[in-house]
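Consider a concrete sample entry:
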Amino acid sequence: MSEIRRSASINQPPKKKHKGTTPETAISTTATAVKIIKEHQKATPVALGDWHASQKQDVKDKFDLSKIKYENEKIIYKEDLDLHKCKSITSLPDPLTVNGDLDLWACTSLTSLPKNLTVHGDICLFGCTSLKSLSDHLTLDGDLNLSLCIDLETLPKPLTVVHGHLNLSYCTSLTSLPDHLTVKGNLNLKSCTSLTSLPDHLTVKGNLNLKGCTSLTSLPDHLTVNGDLDLQDCTSLTSLPDHLTVHGSLNLTNCSSLTSLPHQLTIEGDLDLNYCTSLTSLPDHLTVHGSLNLTNCSSLTSLPDQLTMDEDLDLANCTSLTSLPDHLTVNGYLDLTNCISLTSLPDHLTVHCSLNLTNCSSLTSLPDQLTICGNLQLNECTWLTDLPEWVFNLRRTQTIGLRNTGLSSRRLQEINTRQSTSAYQGPLFEFSINDCNYREYAHVNAENLTPLISELTNRPSDQLHQLWAFAATQTDMGSAFNDFALFLTRLLNELPGNSDHHKEKLSRNFQALFQKMEHEYLTNVQDITKCPLINNVLSSASMAIGTCIDKVKVGYVFMQLLNKPRNERQLATLNAIIKTVEHIYAQRVIFDLENQKFIDVSTYINDNSFDTLTKQKALLAQLKPDEYTHSFSDRKIATLLHNQDLNRQMTLSELNQHLLGLVMKQNPSLRPKRIGDDVEDILNLAYQLLGDDFHKINMRFEGCCSLKDSAHGKYETAAITYINGLY
């Protein structure tokens, strides 16, 4: 067998120099052909001569009889035979041997090949649209290009080895291949739309291209491809064989019926599963030594724990993906763009290049431990309300995209101020000026109520109710209207960056509340002291600004309750929730591990065997400082608060800790429950006990709550039971 020779491309016909026949050398008549052939004893001059004479001039010009020799009853063409675009040719002389390449590109009338054909180079039959079959006795040493032979239905069964490339692309009538076929180069079956299966024991030493084989439903067991396997657009393929071996890349793009992959699949190159919309999961121990592309796998809900890829992981538009495996490591880029069902990322996630979380609109937080070596894109993460501290410790060369997130204007202002300092060494935060519509509140007072009410009611300042003209004059120190202006300013700062719908809801709620306040003001002849609704609103505002900034969210819940009819029980419930959480925070209410319930420390002391002095201290702890003298004399108060170890009087906080120590010493199952963010626990309990018909601003509180049921204790259940017992 001669040395294997391959065309530059099996997808295009070979480009050769097309040689004509000069008058001096051409032998174009039957008589001359007979003369040459008669030199051989076993010649059959009539067959070759008649064939040649029957051809049109384009064939006669290219089939040079001077390059023919005849030996062992075979017609031998001594070099390349180029008959490309001879559209009149229907057949070739038989038997025929070509000591080079045979080019029959675009011979559209050719219906068959010689029964005995040997080609010691490549055969190009590209675009022979009338060719229906090949000879059973076909021998070739190089490539076989049958691309666009649209009438070709089968290959001869004896054809078991192709020493070069085999190109059958766009053979739309081809239904099968010979058994035990071995292709030592590439096998191209692109758009063979009638092909339903491949033969068992098919071996491809190069690449196997099955792109667009829309009728292909399965692949043979033990298929081995030493190069790339392209199955793009094989829309009827439902599964892959268990023992598939691919030493290059595997492309399954738009295999829309594929539901699963074989277990322990290993791909030496890239694995592309783009638009595999029926794929719901990946096998355990999947190993990809290149990149893994799962873009647009809209049914994929999770990834296996034992997933390994050496380069990029692309999960863009995996809209059903809810989670990633713990300890996932991506050695390249991780793209999670438009993963709208993803609510969180795993701890210990490692990404050695950039992480793109654009439009992960359900993502509420970032993990405490995440390693990222490139940029971090958080644009359009509309439920992301804060950033962990590790983000600020990234390198100066890294960029954090924060356009149109759920971070409030206040938080963005803090970030911008932080990165603007000369000592800052962290990453660059990028966000639009529209994302940072921050309102300074250091000097806000009642005078600011006019523009604030105008903004919330969409009414010009000069058309506001006279209540607000009065309120704007109440700027004295301690005025509740000053607190109300500060409350509204802080509340607007809590609106998420993507806040149009929040702003609309907030405006509707306050418009209704303001109308009730305005009506009450007129009904009571402009006497604020006779307006309980207005005073309750102002009191709620003062409470909301008295502690942390986030407390304005609790104040907003109060105001929504004040806007509702028959709200007495709900207001009492909210006050009970606030009291319970504050007492748990102050360790005045502790958790009984044995009975899974919260108890009040002072109540426990009074109900159990403690001495009289301790019970009196417990009673004192339940009182406000201005109520002490109602129950005890000044001398008795001094005695109860005196601490011998400190040699002074205890503060109220120290008194609570003293009593807590006595209770825990008597009953070791009683333990304080530490609360990280009391505001979020108040909100969490409020939305459960008050109903869910509230407007929630920037309140993705679940991740911050301490009072949640867990294996360590039923804290949430116990808190709800405790609250229900208070009223």
